[in-house]
């Protein structure tokens, strides 16, 4: 017992964090969004909604500057939350995302005039395309020393898409 107490000070290797460990951090977000897949041959060709879940994973080493208020953190979860909320959640929550085609130009104009959250895009708004777009947007806003490692976007409880940086170098 006495021996154990003697070893429990700062010199004990058990109390020392490894130098510059590489850590992945994940934050989860959710938003409700409607979409429509123009030209698709399944049920998603109708306007309908999903409860999307988005997982963002970043990678880096915890700050080792003891004077920095973010000491011990890879990135403040609050900072990550602000970035993703401003780029994704605030923009897409309760929005309708729809691809512009030569045929629906007039309809989109009408929708825009009547509803505040219509996102008109030039790509098919599938889970796959949206996650690739989200990754590019988030990557632009992350601090330079933080790597976007991967994203996971759930369209339903059992269907999701993943984007990995290593696949997209
Ligand atoms: Zn759908």
Explain this structure:
The protein has 169 residues and is an alpha/beta fold. It has one domain: 6-pyruvoyl tetrahydropterin synthase/QueD (Tetrahydropterin Synthase, Chain A, 2-Layer Sandwich). Helix content is 27%, strand content 29%. It has 4 helices and 6 strands. The protein has a 6-stranded mixed sheet, sandwiched between helices. Helix 2 packs across helix 4. The longest helix is centred in the middle third of the chain and has 16 residues, at 77-92. The radius of gyration is 22 Å and the shape is elongated. The termini are far apart. The model is unreliable at 1-9 (pLDDT under 50). Bound molecules: zinc ion.
Key traits:
169 residues, alpha/beta, Tetrahydropterin Synthase, Chain A, six-stranded mixed β-sheet, 4 helices, 6 strands, disordered N terminus, binds zinc ion
What's the short version?
The chain is α/β, with parallel strands linked by helices and 169 residues long. The chain has helices spanning 2-6, 77-92, 105-114, 127-141; strands at residues 23-36, 48-60, 95-99, 118-121, 147-154, 160-164. It contains four helices and six strands; from the N terminus they run αββαβαβαββ.
